[in-house]
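Holo prediction. Input below; ligand is adenosine-5'-triphosphate.
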Amino acid sequence: EDEDVKRSLVGFMDKLAPGNVERNLSWGWNMTSDPCKDKWVGVSCDLQLQSVKKVVLDELNLTGVLDIDSVCRATSLSVLSLSKNDVVGLISEEIGNCKSLTHLYLSGNQLSGDLPGSLKQLSNLKRFDISDNNFSGVVPDFSRISGLITFLAQNNQLSGGIPNLDFSNLLQFNVSNNNFSGPIPDVKGRFSANSFSDNPGLCGELVSKACPPSAPAPPSSQKSKDSSSKQFLIYSGYVVLGLIIVLLVVFKLVSKKKPKEEKVNVPEKGMEANTSSNNTSSTPNESNTTKHKSEYSISSVESGKAVSSLVVLTSPKAQGLRFEDLLRAPAELLGKGKHGSLYKVMLDNGATTLAVKRIKDWSVTSHDFKRRMLRLDQARHPNVMPSVAFYCSEQEKLLVYEYQPNGSLFRILLGSQNGQAFDWGSRLNVAASVAEALAFMHEELREDGIAHGNLKSTNILFNENMDPCISEYGLMVFESEDQSFHSQSNSSKNNDMDRGRSYGIFKADINGFGVVLLELLTGKPVQNNGLDLARWVHSVVKEEWTVEVFDTALILEGASEERMLNLLQIALKCMNPNPYERPSMNQVAIMINTLKDEEDRSSSEP
Ligand SMILES: Nc1ncnc2c1ncn2[C@@H]1O[C@H](COP(=O)(O)OP(=O)(O)OP(=O)(O)O)[C@@H](O)[C@H]1O
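Structure of the complex:
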């Protein structure tokens, strides 16, 4: 640590333990030693950066003054703990400089004065404990500190309304024995009267005391902000939709002027197929079809030169499906991803609903595309969603799936953030089923070099029995995450290059699966490549606060911490930055199944 940091820390300790001779001898905390290298008492450092991260000085009979300014100005602490000493003084405004603070424990001291407003700037704060002190005044607004899980302020002289907190996330809360007044907010059944006792001014059901009619409602500013931003999003959605419709109409009018013919191939031998050849393109009704076509079909019909066909695979839902049916049916855009757009298409007046993926920029020949789709159709697993039909011309590639109304894993995780049940057993089942299905597909398609290519929680859908199914297997062009696969293969012959690439694409799936496991464990769904979630989990694990990564709902439910840790280990193995060191999907499936067996055994025990 540099001299400035040392000076500040020594200053902090000088005030905290004035005249404490013992500390000079054995504690460190002086200018002639280094807090990290010489291991000052109570100091923990970031091993790589060699900077002070934690100061934990509990129960050391410290009787001096708390000097927040010194410690927050010079360091980027994540933990400051001074519990059970006799420290005096106050928490000054400079606490706002301790931006990386996640844990602040000051309980059991003689601290006093108002809590500074700058506390609300500590956006990373998780645990806040100022119980058993002499703090007074109103508690600042903590509502923007979304990750807070502990708020303990019992046995002080705090006053005003109960602090504005997100009670659905809190694990520990106590404000008993203070001077709080007014109504008790909705604590979502999480906390009992004990958390509020001995505050004579409080009223509400929980303390069996009716609130006077004029009492102000519990603060809800955050809620109204949320709902107004939601409204804004909805309205902007309408505006964008309106614009798209106008553009479509213009596009249709322009394209109507030069209708072109749709050429369709006779289906290949051995395929159960149905084309529009005998229905549309050879009939004079062609312009009719063009009139009714949905947005996704425009360029298919435009591409007069294309050699194309709708190939129907074996599925009762798609029996007799014709390309023109798809063109005419009403379609709704479900999403626009990196690799294309997805439409919900309603056939037979809504009796059949399909999901049609229009793949963007895939420079694969029609022949290769067809071969790939037919190969994929042979490798069937109950937890992998097969496509029911596909269409391909030189410019257009469409994939047709059954529409799954029960949504994706991503949506279920979002729902669980809003309090919908998604318990540990169900999460472990999803992990095990997806792992097994992916392992099966990898084994089946290894020779062909076809991996999923885009595994993430929006591509894990729940079927009508609520079983998880991997969708869009094998649809995506591979982008190597690791150039070493290329550089390694560049020096070899073509065969080696292909092998290197296909090795990489399977390992990329395993990384994707690791991210899905993290989502299940943390309850935090990620939309894109999952890097931020992974980085966050790694940093928490490195800081040895591992338990804090788990979804609070799982902890409240009493899920086995040991098994959650085991699953986290598997996730981290899958996400090893060196793809060569990641386990195979088969090994992952075996590890998860062992965990699931343990879980099943323990839950069947009396
Ligand atoms: N067959 C289906 N039935 C119902 N919903 C589906 C189906 N397939 C995908 N979805 C959902 O529709 C939405 C849009 O799908 P899309 O595949 O375009 O999104 P994405 O996976 O995020 O994008 P991309 O894979 O192109 O990067 C997602 O929320 C996905 O879960």
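The chain has a mean pLDDT of 79. That is the main takeaway for now.
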